[in-house]
Amino acid sequence: MPALRLLLLLAALCPPVPGRRPQRDAPGKIAVVGGGIGGAAAAYFLRQKFGRSVRLEVLEKAAVGGRLATLEVEGAGYEAGGSVLHPLNLHMKHFVKELGLSVAPAHGSLAGIYNGEEFVFEESSWYIVNLLKLLWHYGLNPLRMYMWVEDILDKFMRIYRYQTHDYAFSSNERLLHALGGNDFIRMLNQTIDEAMQKAGFSHKFINEVVCPAMRVNYGQGVNINSFVGAVSLAGVESGLWSVKGGNKLVCTGLIYASKAEVIPGTVLSIEPKIRPRPTGDPVKLYQVTYNTTSGLTGDTYDIVVIAAPLSRKMANITFKNFDPPVPDFPNPYHQTVTTFVHGRLNTSFFGYRDPSAFHFSAIFTTENPKLFINSLGVVSPVEDVGGEGKLPLQSAIWKVFSKEVLTKEQLNLLFSSYDSVKVKKWLAYPHYSPPEKCPPIILHDKIYYLNGIERAASAMEMSAIAAKNVALLAYHQWYGNTDRIDQEDLHEKLKTEL
Ligand SMILES: Cc1cc2nc3c(=O)[nH]c(=O)nc-3n(C[C@H](O)[C@H](O)[C@H](O)COP(=O)(O)OP(=O)(O)OC[C@H]3O[C@@H](n4cnc5c(N)ncnc54)[C@H](O)[C@@H]3O)c2cc1C
Ligand SMILES: *[C@@H]1O[C@H](CO)[C@@H](O)[C@H](O)[C@H]1NC(C)=O
Ligand SMILES: *[C@@H]1O[C@H](CO)[C@@H](O)[C@H](O)[C@H]1NC(C)=O
Ligand SMILES: *[C@@H]1O[C@H](CO)[C@@H](O)[C@H](O)[C@H]1NC(C)=O
Ligand SMILES: *[C@@H]1O[C@H](CO)[C@@H](O)[C@H](O)[C@H]1NC(C)=O
């Protein structure tokens, strides 16, 4: 018995985890502003790093999920915002598995590329025919593009290794540099058009294949930066998937798993506060003021993570009494409108007099000022398990992307008949115009900002990566683990590590 007691006593005195021993108390309270995928993933990773004792609060002004949302059309839900994931989006894949959710593979569809006058490319249901058509139209450009994207993706994948080994970065540029060196930084400085021309791709290929991919994924043409351009090209590869029941289930699931409390309210301002203590150093805190249905209120936090795009038109947050002041950075977002239409396509609009000859269920477009749409395609409900089967073209649910809300006249041109129409207007992703500069991650001592990474590229996985980076960074800064922040040559260093 005494021996056992001694053992227990020793155990109590010993640090629970060997190695890195926290030198200070854990933070009391952390605020996460925004309950989209970025904020939800931040809550999840913050809990993982800081442990059970910290209080986590997610402040959300609208609905958890943010830009991941479903819209109901005739009794079924459809993805209205962020919809498809790449097979190598490893954080998103991990979340889905961890939360016990299921994957819905993307439906196969026959695609056509329309230039406003005619189809410049028409996919066939025969693989070999497509291959020959591609070769005939574009030579080796498609294959070379695949390799070009693969090379970028290979480097991009290094982030998972760094994050598994607990390394964090204090700026978005440093993070990108650690993945792909100066090449990646340069990608923010040139358009996808310039980058691909330099790499020897043909004008025809860039206009007819690359441009439509930019338009469907980012509502913009080939003048967007080449990093987001490459992300967009990866977004048209095979093996794409989404979450059964809706991608936003990942957000609610992560918040639940993190045991964070969701507070419905709009954050209006943040202000630094110093609270003196009778013993020891004064405590530095942040006063966060938010508006709820029962009026203005607020609370103080040790750490604040901002997981919503900062700009007057979006997360309009005032930083009060900061010295030096938290800078304003230009952060324009691009409007994209999602319209769901249950109806029959007017095939004459696309130059097909005979509707029975029209087989496309996905239509991409090239740049043409005459065109009032970016893309349209047949979609299936989020509850649908996907997989096999052609979607019925007669009276299907079409999802249309456009810059502006479609007028009645425009809908009457696109559809020969339709019943329900559902519209969602988004400030969807940054309006890209290289040279692109990412906003800082550290806005003040312990205020961290996730969405600056969107200026490099906006995607669900990018927000998840930024969330893990911020959780690691906040943790290392709190405990003074400077050896895990902004390490150079990580790729070389980790080669020798297991
Ligand atoms: C139409 C469309 C299609 C897309 N397609 C894809 C795709 O196929 N694949 C892909 O990976 N990505 C896609 N994206 C991009 C992807 O949806 C976003 O990159 C991602 O969802 C951003 O998540 P986030 O959490 O960083 O931001 P958000 O989802 O915007 O979350 C921010 C949250 O903060 C809340 N908030 C804002 N201000 C305040 C405040 N002051 N106080 C409290 N709360 C506040 C908001 O209500 C919101 O819920 C698409 C986006 C759109 C709009
Ligand atoms: C990118 O452009 C910015 C602004 O024009 C410039 O300051 C920076 O040096 C450029 N970086 C690279 C790697 O070319
Ligand atoms: C707070 O919200 C209410 C409605 O919910 C609104 O009337 C009021 O103007 C808001 N206050 C501020 C300061 O934004
Ligand atoms: C942003 O907030 C400030 C201060 O609360 C307010 O004066 C301004 O009108 C807001 N801007 C927008 C576009 O809502
Ligand atoms: C279909 O498109 C054609 C060509 O743009 C147009 O003339 C016609 O009015 C449209 N509507 C219907 C119902 O055919």
From TrEMBL:
<dbReference type="GO" id="GO:0034361">
    <property type="term" value="C:very-low-density lipoprotein particle"/>
</dbReference>
<keyword id="KW-0285">Flavoprotein</keyword>
<dbReference type="GO" id="GO:0001735">
    <property type="term" value="F:prenylcysteine oxidase activity"/>
</dbReference>
<protein>
    <recommendedName>
        <fullName>Prenylcysteine oxidase 1</fullName>
        <ecNumber>1.8.3.5</ecNumber>
    </recommendedName>
</protein>
<dbReference type="Pfam" id="PF13450">
    <property type="entry name" value="NAD_binding_8"/>
</dbReference>
<dbReference type="GO" id="GO:0030328">
    <property type="term" value="P:prenylcysteine catabolic process"/>
</dbReference>
<comment type="similarity">
    <text>Belongs to the prenylcysteine oxidase family.</text>
</comment>
<dbReference type="InterPro" id="IPR010795">
    <property type="entry name" value="Prenylcys_lyase"/>
</dbReference>
<dbReference type="GO" id="GO:0005764">
    <property type="term" value="C:lysosome"/>
</dbReference>
<dbReference type="InterPro" id="IPR036188">
    <property type="entry name" value="FAD/NAD-bd_sf"/>
</dbReference>
<keyword id="KW-0560">Oxidoreductase</keyword>
<dbReference type="InterPro" id="IPR017046">
    <property type="entry name" value="Prenylcysteine_Oxase1"/>
</dbReference>
<feature type="signal peptide">
    <location>
        <begin position="1"/>
        <end position="19"/>
    </location>
</feature>
<feature type="domain" description="Prenylcysteine lyase">
    <location>
        <begin position="121"/>
        <end position="487"/>
    </location>
</feature>
<keyword id="KW-0325">Glycoprotein</keyword>
<keyword id="KW-0732">Signal</keyword>
<keyword id="KW-0458">Lysosome</keyword>
<keyword id="KW-0274">FAD</keyword>
<dbReference type="GO" id="GO:0071949">
    <property type="term" value="F:FAD binding"/>
</dbReference>
<dbReference type="GO" id="GO:0030327">
    <property type="term" value="P:prenylated protein catabolic process"/>
</dbReference>
<comment type="function">
    <text>Prenylcysteine oxidase that cleaves the thioether bond of prenyl-L-cysteines, such as farnesylcysteine and geranylgeranylcysteine. Only active against free prenylcysteines and not prenylcysteine residues within prenylated proteins or peptides. Involved in the final step in the degradation of prenylated proteins, by degrading prenylcysteines after the protein has been degraded.</text>
</comment>
<dbReference type="Pfam" id="PF07156">
    <property type="entry name" value="Prenylcys_lyase"/>
</dbReference>
